[in-house]
Amino acid sequence: MPRHALGIHALTLLLAPAIAHAEAPAPALAPVPLPAPKGPDPAAIAAREAHLETQTRAMTVLTSWAVASIATGAALWATGGDDYTRSIGIQNVAWGAVDGVIAGFGYRGLAKQRGLDKPLSYWQAEDSKARTIFLVNAGLDVLYVTAGALMIGFGKNDWVRGAGAGVALQGSFLFAFDTAMGLGAR
């Protein structure tokens, strides 16, 4: 047998198993079941909606108080015949403006949370955080009422006593509001 024929024969013997394997049908693979697509957690959705409803209600109350404070404050400031009344009016306008800004930021934060698909634990933590903030604010509100009472009791003139009455009034509302939200928020 010529030498080159021997090389071809050897090459054929080496490649025969690979060629035979390539022509053999592939073994059938068992289908692997895919996990069912996960939808939103109904409990998390319910918690999100309850959280948003509670916080929206809080911002609505705060906005209403802000508008009422600014309106009555402006009227007292403009038409008050004495320093005491005008000073109460100024306090109402100032506190109402601050409450309005706070409510605006609150609404903005709620708008960002509306579409969030977070787990139940996230919404439980948000509720806990909100309760804590309201209760800390209630503690600060006690300081406002106390400061207002001290201004009324020890103020040297009607302007200071009127400012104290305005601070005490605003602090009293905020104490009731923050306490109700802190204890009543889910």
UniProtKB/TrEMBL annotation:
Protein name: Uncharacterized protein
Entry keywords, A to Z: Membrane, Signal, Transmembrane, Transmembrane helix
Organism per entry: Polyangium jinanense
Spans through the membrane: 93-111, 132-153, 159-177
UniProt-listed InterPro entries: DUF6992
Pfam families in alphabetical order: DUF6992 (PF22503)
Signal peptide: 1-22
